[in-house]
Amino acid sequence: MKSTHTQAYIQAIAALISARKERRVLQADLALKLNKPQSFVSKYEARERRLDVVEFFEVCRAIGANPVAVLRQAGLLTDEDTRSPEP
User: Fold this and answer.
1) CA dist., res. 64 & res. 20, Å (int)
2) How far apart are CA 39 and CA 48, in angstroms?
3) 43: Cβ–Cβ under 8 A, 6 or more apart, which residues?
4) Of 61, 81, 65, 66, the residue nearest 22 (C-alpha)
5) Domains recognised in the chain with CATH numbers
6) What's the rounded Cα separation, in Å, for the pair 87 and 65?
7) Are 12 and 20 in contact (CB under 8 A)?
8) Dihedral angle sign, alpha carbons of residues 60, 41, 12, 58
9) How far is the C-alpha of 46 from the C-alpha of 48, rounded, in Å?
10) What is the pTM of this model?
11) What is the pLDDT along the chain (87 residues), one digit of tens a residue?
């Protein structure tokens, strides 16, 4: 079966998993914070289920991670991406 996930999505999930583990948050504890079953966390981490952008931000908040930092770690954002345009 061919994956429908892009390399960018795979990198974003890997960075999210890394951020969770760095903070020593278990999948079960994260699920409780999100008011979801543990299988929710397991499935998106295994890429069996896609996270939408709102869920991505909710997960980041629940583990205490800055979403911009997670996307930078994934190699998906640069400083230029977050710089305000000059007037």
Assistant:
1) 9
2) 10
3) 49
4) 65
5) 7-77 (1.10.260.40)
6) 31
7) no
8) negative
9) 5
10) 0.86
11) 445 689 999 999 999 999 999 999 999 999 999 999 999 999 999 999 999 999 999 999 999 999 999 999 999 998 888 787 777
